[in-house]
Amino acid sequence: VGCDRSKNLVDICGEKHFQAFVCDALSVPIRSGSCDACISIAVIHHFSTAERRLATIRELARLLRPGGTALIYVWAMEQEYKNQRSKYLKEKNGSKNKDKEMNTGTAQRPFSDQGPHNSSQDSTWSDQLLNDLKNESCGAKPVADCTLPVHTNRTSFHSQDLLVPWHLKSGAKKKEESVDRMLVPGGSKELQELSSVFHRYYHVFSEGELEAVCRSLDCVRVQKSYYDQGNWCVILEKL
């Protein structure tokens, strides 16, 4: 049985005749102790606080029967480990996209980036999205800096908390659909086609961090902790 926050992804599972439902990883509507095993792949690194990440692992443990196991994968801060580059970094050189990546950085965001899909993005648009995020999340409270860095595609991480742009390429749109357009920066009246860009939050885990969070729970024990292609991974056993 699978679950996801995205209804569209769950619908795809249904079309493939898999059992899946929509839910939140912090509150899974399954009885406690009813699962032999649970798998959480690339989920926990999207929770924005240490408390929520811990609560997600506690919820996984709740679902397990005594002796049951859970496998957890999260994105690693260390994309180069034991002198080996991850597949994520290696794919930069092998990309078919030969266009020069545009720098989307500003003085407030020293670590600028492209997302998992190699398409360019307009810096003005990126700055506006981040400003909107800042205004919505911070309100009127005085803070030092609530702007998150935007990660550059296929590069090492320079911050544990960051935004990764996800690009919906215009080529994927139907021919009859209109393509998003906006003014080229610099005051030009020419129109430039742009892909839709969505910024997704990530907390990339440093070495030992995921294991330490799991060990803070007295209801599970860590069977194994390892690194796998740019991810930190643990196997837990319910006590």
From TrEMBL:
Biased composition annotated in UniProt, kind: Basic and acidic residues: 86-102
Cross-referenced SUPFAM superfamilies: S-adenosyl-L-methionine-dependent methyltransferases
Keywords, comma-separated and alphabetical: Methyltransferase, Transferase
InterPro entries: AlkB_tRNA_MeTrf/Diox (IPR051422), Methyltransf_11 (IPR013216), SAM-dependent_MTases_sf (IPR029063)
Span list, region Disordered: 86-125
UniProt-listed GO biological process terms: tRNA methylation; tRNA wobble uridine modification
Methyltransferase type domain residues: 1-72
GO cellular component: cytoplasm; nucleus
Compositional bias ranges of the Polar residues kind: 103-125
GO molecular function: S-adenosylmethionine-dependent methyltransferase activity; tRNA (5-carboxymethyluridine(34)-5-O)-methyltransferase activity; tRNA binding
Protein name: ALKB8 protein
Organism field: Nesospiza acunhae
Gene from which this protein is expressed: Alkbh8
